[in-house]
Amino acid sequence: MTRNYPLQLTVYPLPITGEFILSDQDYEYYKPTKPIETDQGIKAHSKRGEFVKNWWAARWIKALEQLVDAGRLRRGRAYARSGQVLAIEEKQDGLLAKVQGSRATPYKVTIQLQPLSETQWNAVTDVLAERAIFTAQLLAGEMPQQIEEAFAAAGVSLFPATRADLVTNCTCPDPANPCKHVAATHYILGEQFDEDPFLLFRLRGRSQEQVMDALRARRSAGEAVQLAETGATYGPDETATPLDATLDHFWTMGQGMAQFPTNIKPPLTPRPVLQRLGQPTFLAENLEQLLGPAYDAMMNAALKAAFSETEEQEIGRG
Amino acid sequence: MYVLHVHWQPPATPAEMGGVLLWAESASFTPTKVERRGRKPPLHPFCADDKTIHQLLHQLTGVITTGKTGQVTLLVPTTQWGPLPSPHLLHDWAVDARSPTLAAWQIPGLWLTPATALALLMKLPSAQDLPHHLRLGDDCRYWAVATNLVLESLAQQKVLPTLSQVDAKQVQARWQPVLDGPRDGPRLARLLTAMPPVCRAEVQEGVEASLPRWLLDTFLNTMTDALARQWSQAGQPSFTFRQTEPVYQWLRALFLTEPTIPSATAPLQRLQTSMRAWLRNLHMAGDRHFRIALRLEAPQQQVSAQATDAWVLHFLLQARDDPSLLVPAEQVWQSRGNDLTALGRRFEQPQEKLLAGLGYAARLFEPLRRSLQSARPTTLPLSADEAFAFLRTAASLLEESGFGVLVPPWWNKPGTRLGVRLHMQGRKGARVDSVAAGGLNLEKLVSYRWELSLGDTTLTRAEFDALVALKSPLVQIRGQWVQLDPAQIEAAIRFWNKHEPEAEVDLQEALRLGLSAENIDGLNIDEVQYEGWLADWMARFTQNEPLTVLPQPATLHAQLRPYQQYGYSWLDFLRRWNMGACLADDMGLGKTIQTLAMLLREKELQGHLPGPVLLVAPTSVVTNWAKEIDRFAPDLTAFVHQGMHRLRGEAFIEQVKQTDIVLTSYPLVRRDEETLNQVDWFGVILDEAQNIKNAETKQARALRQLPATFRLALTGTPVENRLSELWSIMHFLNPGYLGSRQTFRQRFALPIERYENAEAAQQLRKLVAPFILRRVKTDPTVIQDLPEKQETKVYCHLSPEQATLYEAVVREALQQIESTEDDLQRRGQVLAMLMKLKQICNHPAQFLHQIGDGYTPNGEETRSGKLERLVEMLEEIMAVNDRTLIFTQFAEMGQLLRSYLQQRLSVPTQFLHGGTPTRQRTTMIERFQEDPDGPPIFILSLKAGGTGLNLTRANHVFHFDRWWNPAVENQATDRAFRIGQQRNVQVHKFVCVGTLEEKIDDMIESKKALAESVVGSGEHWLTEMSTNELRAMVALRREMLA
After folding, report:
1. What is the DSSP letter of B129?
2. Of these four, A171, B119, B570, B910, which has the most CB atoms within 10 Å of its CB?
3. How far apart are CA B629 and CA B623, in angstroms?
4. How far is CA A290 from CA A296, B252, B398, in A?
5. Is residue B655 helix, strand or coil?
6. What does the angle CA A9 – CA A11 – CA A12 come to, to the nearest 5 degrees?
7. How far is CA A263 from the centre of its chain?
8. DSSP states of B368-394 as a string?
């Protein structure tokens, strides 16, 4: 089975020849070596099956899958899951990762996205500003569902759409690019978008502040005016009376404790804190289902401790 | 006497857990002076040892601790004599408290595990239920309140599993309380400012004094984590062994004793980063200065259920420090730049925060996504269903997430949901004022009828069905919005299927429905309407309308004061309706006379009482009752059922038939239970009813079983604030009315006493108020009826030990006197005998000279009738925070009283006598008069304190023994009763019944004028008597004794 990839040779710094249209056979020819095991790396949250749950991360990975053969993908996924990616660092113009391979020195992987031009960004910002949900969801840590449409409307793509969009490199001897080390890094990145959707924007050349400033400028439809620094701070000061100034009330509780109601009863909506937090990205199972019984057990024990009692002791005079 | 302290030691490093140390100050021995040598802080000289602490703990909570012995170093206010005791410690040694400084002391104690600490703090009895020898330090109470907060977090499931980096190498899985609700900020702020300084006094390396926030945070976190770990075991998830990744190691570690995750740091750090991103979701509602607020507005009028935009949700910014400052979203969008200045506040990045907040809120309330489709969202139109979903579920979640939620004012008001209305009608033929005694069957006296109500409207079934057909959860009836959600509709249908629309019940059941039930099968009881004579009756019963005041009984030998006349009419009213009543007037307001008036009226009307009345009182007051009946109600026949030779069986029953009132004491009720049960009592009256506060005792059970038509409890303690007492008394008076003791504890006692639930307190008050009449001396209506000075004799009995000693002394002394020829010698012998008898009447320990250095009083009140009575009366006086003077002629007795009362009542007590240095006298007087925490009991020797002093803080004066000279006694009384006294003063003069004290007192009373001249010079006139006269005077009349 042979796959063809629309390679754009110029983009890649490594010499890429026609032989590089890979087949499984070629793959066999490149004898994979066993990587050095490490427990210092970033392990992917995903353990089995589909690598990511969110659509945006899926889009990201799909972009990779169009570039890499199945074998390297599989090995890259295994690397990601076993924690071979040691670190990922954001640089000015892209990402630098260290991946533990079979050699003692970890390989260096770089991943870059083709940045959008000023004009392209302006077009995108115009579209994003039309609907508050983009900003709202981005700020709430979610990638808006229709973000691709917004970029498409501006005639560009947020996710790497063409070979030219994704620029990768690795110091490993594998002549293939992207190699499994790049793939592993790519997978890990897919999960990181879950936590920081602005990462993609940065890779495309705009920081969160830049995007937000631009959006705000459009909302206010005028020039941004810097307001003078004024303002008070609120909130309690973290100081306490020196102990030797408290001698006259050293043993006594302060005022205001006379009526201190506590409300020991079941919650109105079950497990409010987990509901507020939502499902975490780092867990495959549903957290609320997983911890639900534990929460209920705590609640019942607390209610029991608060209200049921063993027979009171006869205290004092019988 | 001990003061229990709880010390929280915060963890020294984040990896540790900190600990709870229980320690106690002890007053049981005089501490020796400690020399400070070297750098190591010395051992605190008056701390209880670990064995004692174990005992105290076990006694208090029934918890047997396995706590490890340990110690902490605390900075304690110290003078050159050593550490100063905390104000709760009542000690006998002298303390020079001038110019203290902080010094470090080693404090020994017991380390408790979080679970034991919780059990201890949860089981601490309320102040009035503490044993006498124990007080709780404020630190103890403080951490108990903080523990309530931990329990609340766990019960409300407001805890969070977290992963925290505790040091460079270790990561721990911890449970944390989430205290960020709208009420939590103010509560935590109160806890922070109210922390007793001693909590911060631990000397730890590099820490001067821990910050309150650090202590409180670590305490809440550690306790929550420990309890969550322990209590969640039953619901622990199971993992396969293959799930070894960091996230599973984290989840596992949440349920293990060891919170540290055994895994390499880097993968965990990554998990931690992910978790941090996840936890951001807790703080999406704004920043420190403002938050996003959502305000729901209702349409002007009812719209069709299909309309999708009639309800409107407005978006705003709300200032945190002043929730009334609201900036509408429109204004936010108009702002330029990073900040917005509005209403004198600066908001940073308001647009982004608003958007971020809305973006997050959309997860909790899906329809918000719609509004985010526009560029500058300001409002969100909603359908009625959506508006209802917002009100019903989203609002509380949003509020807990920190959003401001402004809902229409009617939403939380009662009466905007489906409810029921109860109509009650008294049976025809009965009338408020004319219930023939015993002639009316009080069962099924009330008929009731249910109606369905919504808002102010009563709904017929047809109307209800029509509203249901609107299929809208929010409907408007007569201009008023009400909710009509499916759950309630179902509840209403269920209600109609289950309940008879009309039925009959007895009066007590009707009362309980009317006064307490708020909710029946999921429907609110909106209103209870009483109709016919029952309406009238309820108004009087709940004292909304004054009762008809009855004329005072002709046969009462006293003039009832107006409030007493009302009280007696009230007693009569409740008795006629078979309601057990509790008369809880302050001491000295005349509970006795009101009770006797009620009985006299019945006897006047009927010619006789329908049956005998059993009056149960503490042994020490039985005699007093007999005397009072004699004096005020001689038409009532009474006999005292007491003593070795009391009547039993048939003889008793025969005697009872001819008697109106049988007087007996609490212990005898249990002993003679069988005999007493054979009588059909007209009534059972309990005096000092707080004696049955422990409802489980055989005595209380025996009392409840006595057959009686009416029941009455008398007490001078503020019974409505002492819940265990209240339940027991009510259970005696109206069995079943307050439910079982268990349900009462759960529904009222614990919520009110431990968790300070105002709603429960309000409900209970409503429920019991009609059964309790309590007037206090300071009531304006009462005070004008009271004399400024009120003198009463307190008749006390002799204990068996006293009686034996008394008789022996009389026998021996009279023999001696008889055989003495020399007049001077005889006089001396007479005076010596009188002195001895007075000492015996006071207390055997005084006569036997057992009081002196190193004297420790122990169970002394069983040895003396006077002391027993004094303690009972002081308990009542202390319960209402009054102050009192006690005069005695004897320094020894004063010393006994001081040590014993201080220990027995756990209040500071001071004694001024001839040997008190002048400076100390001044301090004592100042403390008594000025200091709000000063000693409420002041004992004075008559000679040293009888003149000159101004002690107007006291409104009770006791004359424990007698000078037999009214002028001298009055002069002493006037220490309290003089210019500056704002309240009325009650004077209690103690007299031992059957002894020379009573004889002399009678003589003084019968010829007051004579007494002034004859007795004026003291006791010398007694020496003039012949031996026979003397014998008649001093001989013990055994028949008067118990």
Report:
1. G
2. B570
3. 10
4. 11, 12, 24
5. helix
6. 75
7. 37
8. HHHHTTSSS--EEEE-HHHHHHIIIII
A69 CA to chain B: closest CA distance, Å?
Answer: 27
pLDDT (mean) for B698-709: 91
Alpha-carbon gap, residue B861 to B843, rounded angstroms: 9
Please, which pLDDT band fits residue A19 given cuts at 50, 70 and 90? very low
Q: How far apart are CA A266 and CA A270, in angstroms?
A: 8
Cβ distance B550 to B601 under 8 Å?
yes
- B637 pLDDT higher than 90: yes
Nearest one of B447, B446, B466, B444 to B457, comparing CA atoms: B466
Preceding omega of B259 cis (within 30 degrees of 0): no
Q: What is the mean pLDDT of residues B632-653?
A: 89
d(CA B437, CA B455): 42
**What is the spatial distance between Cα A312 and Cα A294, in angstroms, rounded to a whole number?**
30
- Structural tokens at position B941: 């020797």
Per the prediction, chain B carries an average pLDDT of: 85
Q: Can you list the positions of beta strands (E) in B379-456?
A: 379-382, 404-406, 418-426, 446-454
Measured CA to CA, the distance from residue B872 to residue B568 in angstroms comes to: 25
**Residue B864 or B80, more confident:** B864
- Chain B residues in contact with A99 by the CB 8 A cut-off are none
Which CA distances in Å does A24 have to A14, A74, A169?
21, 13, 22
Q: Are strands A85-91 and B523-531 parallel, antiparallel or unpaired?
A: unpaired
- What b/e readout covers B720-731, taking b as 16+ CB neighbours within 10 angstroms? bebbbbbbbbbb
Q: What is the pTM of this model?
A: 0.75
**B51-59 long-range contacts, Cβ below 8 Å, gap at least 24?**
B52/B2, B52/B24, B52/B26, B53/B22, B53/B23, B53/B24, B53/B109, B53/B110, B54/B110, B56/B2, B56/B4, B56/B24, B56/B134, B57/B22, B57/B110, B57/B120, B59/A313, B59/A315, B59/B131
pLDDT tens-digit series, residues B244-264:
788 888 999 999 988 888 777
| Per-residue model confidence (pLDDT) at position B440 | 47
Q: Is the Cβ–Cβ distance between A188 and A89 less than 8 Å? A: no
Q: Measured between beta carbons, which residues in chain A are less than 8 angstroms from residue B154? A: 298-299, 301-302
- Mean pLDDT within B802-830: 91
Q: Measured between CA atoms, how close is B977 to chain A, in angstroms?
A: 33
Q: Do B372 and A136 touch (CB under 8 A)?
A: yes
- The two tokens of residue B108 are 């020994």
Lowest mean pLDDT among B24-28, B731-735, B946-950: B946-950
Quote the distance between the C-alpha of residue B135 and its chain's center. 15
Residue A147: its chain B contacts at CB < 8 A?
A: none
Best probe of the A interface among B123, B153, B268, B278, by most A CBs < 10 A, is B278
Q: What confidence score (pLDDT) does residue A114 get?
A: 87
